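Hi R.,

Here are the chain sequences for the assembly we discussed:
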Amino acid sequence: MFRFSVLIACFLVQYSSILMAQSAAKKFTLVIHGGAGVITRANLSSEREQEYHRALDSALRIGYAILEQGGTSMNAVEKVVNYLEDNPLFNAGIGAVYTADGTHELDAAIMDGKTLAAGAVAAVKRIKNPISLARLVMEKSEHVMLIGEGAEKFAQTQNITLVPNTLFDTPARKRALERIQQEEREQATKDSIKQDSIRKANLKKRSASDKHGTVGAVALDIHGNLAAATSTGGMTNKRFGRVGDAPIIGAGTYANNGSCAVSATGWGEYFIRTVVAHDVAALVEYKGLSVQSAGQEVINKVGKLGGDGGMIILDTKGNFSMPFNSEGMYRGVITQENKPTTAIFK
Amino acid sequence: MFRFSVLIACFLVQYSSILMAQSAAKKFTLVIHGGAGVITRANLSSEREQEYHRALDSALRIGYAILEQGGTSMNAVEKVVNYLEDNPLFNAGIGAVYTADGTHELDAAIMDGKTLAAGAVAAVKRIKNPISLARLVMEKSEHVMLIGEGAEKFAQTQNITLVPNTLFDTPARKRALERIQQEEREQATKDSIKQDSIRKANLKKRSASDKHGTVGAVALDIHGNLAAATSTGGMTNKRFGRVGDAPIIGAGTYANNGSCAVSATGWGEYFIRTVVAHDVAALVEYKGLSVQSAGQEVINKVGKLGGDGGMIILDTKGNFSMPFNSEGMYRGVITQENKPTTAIFK
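And here is the predicted structure of the full complex:
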């Protein structure tokens, strides 16, 4: 009887440790964002607000389905960003903002925290899902960053069908372009000699209302690997082949199993100068800061320079953080517990 | 007599402290590079070697003249890089390598360590001195990074005359392109089914011989401010609008008075993935490493991933470091003592 009890006890101990190992192994997290900026209850109808919550929820469920099946964080962030690119609510893919010329130029980057492999594309005009092209650059080319028509030529070697640039048109973004261009014309009339301070104040105002669209995802899979992905149409009325932080490895996108994964969204120029994503990772790795403290410290640096925006951060223990110094950031989180949460305001 | 002696002593003390203050204030340093790679005594004739030393020496003297007069580190790095861009010995500006299409696409970036302002251009074809355009992007546009034809349109708004792309042609670089394309054709015949490992080995070989050209400068001026600048033609036979690390703030170029200034040269893809320049700065700022230790640690990371190259690093105390894991790096240093030193091999 004693021997039998010991046997049962041993079995139970072993079984529960298997269960624990399984549940430990099954731990995963996905954090997403859909842009940051001036998003007040006043300028967002309750109906529109619900649309955003539903879209973020759908994105989280797509990632959950992949991660729950043991899929990689790379697959999760790519597919989640694909969904956000295809959704006209967000400034990436369909729904991307307009350039000054009335076209769309898309940027994206992806990074694998396990291998530090990375891929990025900038100023592509005929790629439906730039994040997937960024992944092909990473996996199928010798390069990390390809831009413009060159990137599209590479896409064709990978059997990606080019789409017309008008595919990305949406009436809401068109109205935003027209409004901004009208404002600029009025301003130019008011100040026939444009003063630098006025120009900068205008830019800041414009930034606050129309510049911050980006989508991104960071994920930790059950294998313990991190990945980050960011995709964007950039800023409304952009000129001169302007590239923001999204496709810059270290600025808008970074992933490293040794520190954390980061996807940023905000006034790109400030995020490039602050090397935001890598700075967060460096504070985590070299100063031992939590993802919360590191994120807050770097957002403060951006704010000090005069920039605004936010980011999502995730480490290999599943700790995450979503700091922003703008009025709102579309965001959401899901873990192995399958309880998606989404938020917009502070 | 005693009173007179005291007076004299006081005068001497005061005078010497003025002298000391002047000499402390006059402290400045300039470090430059002209690319890293396989540079062996076997493939570099002694005559050619002397040409490189003379060119590096001339570059140092240009920077010295600016810094000695109290000029800013920003002016020094710009003018030094202008000289290297105009010198056909180096892969930047005139003497830039050829793309697969037989043209030249130039990249450059500049950063001010005092303000963290930065400017970058990529894939420009008709700009004689890309580093000066990068500075205009920083000072005269709302942006940090402009690419391709857009960057050239911006240049025209700044009264920069566009030059024909053939201005950058040199017979030596043309032969390098032809040699590489011939090698690729031979390889393609040998391996009708190109295996990934072979392709990668070829790339590595090619990298070793033709990829590492870049020029750069970091400077500390008598006002205590750092600056960094990098300019390049990229890699021979590049395709698809490939962008390397040079114009990426944080990868090939970074300056911050709070840590150090860095300009890198090497196999760009690895330098982007390692976020080389910002990683060095982060190790200096967050871990308190010297510029020597930080540089070595980051070059080791690049090497571990399979990449090679080098960089120049300078802090606000005038400490500098020039680590590289390739066989050689064209480099030089000059300080307020006006003793230019140049080197190529280890």
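The longest strand of chain A covers residues 29-37. Confidence is low (pLDDT under 50) at residues 18-23 of chain A.

Let me know if anything looks off.

Best,
T.
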